[in-house]
Structures are given as C-alpha cells and as structure tokens.
Amino acid sequence: MGLYDKATMNGQSTAFPTDIDDGLTKREWFAGMALQGIIAACGNSDGAVSYKENAVAANAISLADALLKQLAESDGAK
User: Fold this and answer.
1) Which pLDDT belongs to residue 49?
2) What proportions of the chain, in percent to the nearest 5, are helix, strand and coil?
3) pTM assigned to the model
4) What is the mean pLDDT of the chain?
5) Considering only CA atoms, which of 38, 35, 34, 31 is closest in space to residue 15?
C-alpha cells in the first residue's frame, strides 16, 4: 500500500465513533481543529476578525491532509 493510500484510509477512519454514530472522520476532525486555529489567528488588535472563508477552509483541509500524510510517513497512522 502506497503512502497516499495509507493517509487516505487513515483520514476516512472515524475519530470518535459511538454505538449510535460513526462521527467525524479523522480528516474532518483535523480540518476543524486547523480551521479553529486559523480563524483565532485572524483577529487584529481591535478584536475584529478578517478572513476569506473559501481560502481559510481550503487551508484547513490542506493542513489536515498534510498531517495525515506525515502520520502515514512516520507509521503513526492507526
């Protein structure tokens, strides 16, 4: 199995499954956490937040994918 396949499979596994629901995928969870950090860092000194929604979302997904790839490379993907 290639690195891309391993990262993709890990990203599709669930982060917090329950008896009722599979929950978010790891990719969705990682993207959400990245999104939270990106938005928190977008504020300026007067507390106003300025960001472009599509760009922020795309960056969060890219960061999630990069994390999944790094986990696969380090064989930390489980």
Assistant:
1) 65
2) 60, 5, 35
3) 0.72
4) 80
5) 31
